[in-house]
Amino acid sequence: MTENDDPTTDPIISVEKLVVAYERSEETVRAVDGIDLQIDPGTIVGLIGPNGAGKTTLLKTLLGLVSPTGGRVRVDGTDVAEHPHRAHATMAAVLEGARSTYWRLTVRENLEFFSRMNAAGRGDERERIRAAIDRFNLTDLSDEVVNDLSRGQKQRVSLAAALVQDPEILFLDEPTLGLDTEGSLELQSSLVDLAEQHGTTIVLSSHDLHAIESICDRGIVLDDGHVVADDTVENLVDVFRTEVYELVIEGALSPSARGEIERAYEIVSCTELRDRTALEVAVPDGNRIHDLTGAMVAHGSQIESVRTLEGSLEAVLDSLSFERSEPLERRPLRGAP
Amino acid sequence: MNGYCSRSPTALVSAVSALVRRDLLIMRRYPLNTAGAVLGLYALFLLVYVGGRSFVGPSFGETLGALIVGFFLFVMANASYQSLAGLFATEAKWGTLEQLYLSPIGFGPIAVLLSLSSLLVTFSIGFAMLALMLLTTGESISLDLLSIVPIVVLTLLSTIGLGLLFGGATVRYKNVSAVFGLVKFALVACIALGPASTEFVVLKLLPLTQGSYLLQRVMNEGVRLWELEPAELSVLAFVGIAYFVLGYALFRYCTDRARAAGVMGHY
């Protein structure tokens, strides 16, 4: 769990010992299995993990669309399971991507509908609609029937319909799915702008790791209903960056050197080139890289170069390998003695 | 959202007007679809009317008023029931059911507002059909709206209750449309049983039956609302409200079960 750095800021979302279990084909599936987390206002949080990890179930439980089997979700101090409509006054969501609006209505009619349904009396409606149309570049499309728009345009309409409700918290399930690169970048820019300028808290689940890496303050990695890593995206990537080194040595790696390395570290890969060998070695503590290089030299290896591998969320997810495990900061890293 | 009350009268009026406007916009945007629905019902009426005249002969005219009133009630009962029961499946298919659930008004009150908006749309279809039927047959009946509207509203509470029940079942159990069609036949039977309910009082507990009986008296015999026996009106109100409350309670139960099973919004 990421600690709340600012003691004066209460978390806007608080999840305690959350369990969501379903009966499926005469067996109980624990889609969410004992999750604790807190989310601070104004942050962008990405839920990451493979299919079936529990991302969408967690998202829907935060929204009250799924009832918890155990534990509790509070949004802005309100228990979502007990008083969903009170909690809904602070939130909006786009869960079905392009399908979250009425395709038989025009863009403007949709925005008017969702504004009047969910946000009547919340300031100037026309101004909110104008701002949402501007933010998602829908001015030229505002009188078009949604059915006639492209998938990316429909996705933008869904987001505008959520935004027009003036939410404090915005939940998004796979927001960049189906968008082209330009559309995805535009969306990412809008979300960052929303969090920075309006203090909107954004919780999104996505397989688009580039998007998460680009815009999220924090990444929560889920697997099999558990949180396996939870930290700032920067720290998540740093963990990997300082963990894996690429070493290029002259000639082949001698069996004694290999044995020495494998005793204390993990060889991620070993590629023999024409007259040299490239090794990727996981080193749990950056300071121990010197022990590694010293041991290799002692076993006759001539090291040509050493570099840390570029970190990315993709690499982090690969390294976690999605086995049931302890949270990242507590679990033994690969290759550790 | 300081000071924002999601269930204030302003918020509720705003929501119901948004729902009615949405329905009217869709009806206007797809006129063939709308006209097709009305013409389909009109064709069914013509079939009964022309067939009845051919088979029964001149004496058919004596029952024509009852047929028109019965058909008028069937059109509205069917529209109110089917629009609600089918609505949740449609919203789930459109991907908008979860959006309705997320309304700060609450899903239960939203279902009531949907009932209200469907009632308004139902009235427009019902009275359009009534005008077509009267023009076609040349029949004249009493159109005392002050008497007709309250009776129709109380009568339709029972079909709205059934609509909510099947809407809730759709949200929880998904494809239950096969049962929808069967309920239509049951509604016809309930309307037809209206006159018989004077002999078999227990029939008054069926949906529509008491309303059918009273509506026949108002529209065919020219009886005014205040001339009807208070006991008969009380039964009408009790049955309508009971079905509505039961339907609403089961709707809430089904949606709670859907949330527990994690299938809200699936279809």
From TrEMBL, chain A:
Please give the coiled-coil regions recorded for this protein.
none
GO molecular function terms attached to this record: ATP binding; ATP hydrolysis activity
Q: Domain ABC transporter: where?
A: 13-249
The record ties this protein, via InterPro entries, to:
AAA+_ATPase, ABC_transporter-like_ATP-bd, ABC_transporter_ATP-binding, P-loop_NTPase
The alphabetical list of record keywords is: ATP-binding, Nucleotide-binding, Transport
- PROSITE patterns registered for this protein in UniProt: ABC_TRANSPORTER_2
By sequence similarity, the record places it as follows: Belongs to the ABC transporter superfamily.
Provide the protein name: ABC transporter
Source organism: Natronococcus amylolyticus DSM 10524
Question: What lineage, starting at the top, does this entry show?
Answer: Archaea, Methanobacteriati, Methanobacteriota, Stenosarchaea group, Halobacteria
Automatic annotation (TrEMBL), chain B:
The UniProt entry, under PANTHER family, shows:
ABC-TYPE MULTIDRUG TRANSPORT SYSTEM, PERMEASE COMPONENT, NODULATION PROTEIN J
Q: Which UniProt keywords apply?
A: Membrane, Transmembrane, Transmembrane helix
Record keywords: Membrane included? yes
Q: What is this protein's record name?
A: ABC transporter
Q: Where are the transmembrane segments?
A: 30-52, 64-89, 110-133, 145-166, 178-197, 233-251
The organism's superkingdom is given as Archaea
Q: Which InterPro entries match?
A: Nod_factor_ABC_transporter
This chain's source organism reads: Natronococcus amylolyticus DSM 10524
